[in-house]
Amino acid sequence: MDLEAAHREFGQRLALTLGVALYSRDKVRAGGTLLFMGGTGGRRPGVGMTVVSALTAALPALTANLALELAPIRVNLIAAGFVDTSLSASLLGDQLDARREELRATLPIRRVVGPADVAALAVHLMCNDALTGGTYDIDGGQQLPSR
pTM of the predicted model, to two decimals? Predict the structure, then answer.
């Protein structure tokens, strides 16, 4: 583990999220929404996952506290699992098709989550003014225990 790289990751992810929230408080109307993106990948411990796991755990707490501190502005977090995007393709390279097939076979929804799924959730969170301080997983059920 590289401490300098970890410091950058924490600064980029947590400080940037906090900065966006603080600088937006005078620009977002009452009842408006701040919507942040996170992930679910760091919820399972593993070698090399220390920083990612810590950030994955910190963002929901940050979101919930910001919802209280910035009220009546609403603050929510989307925590995405694997989403079939060009970024996923660039990271997985020639393993992309195998990952898609694995997800189709194992996810309860029997398909891969796509950008339109995430966009639909984002629109819902921005339009539903009863939602604040929450973390909303969109992973096709990947986090559910296997039978």
Answer: 0.92
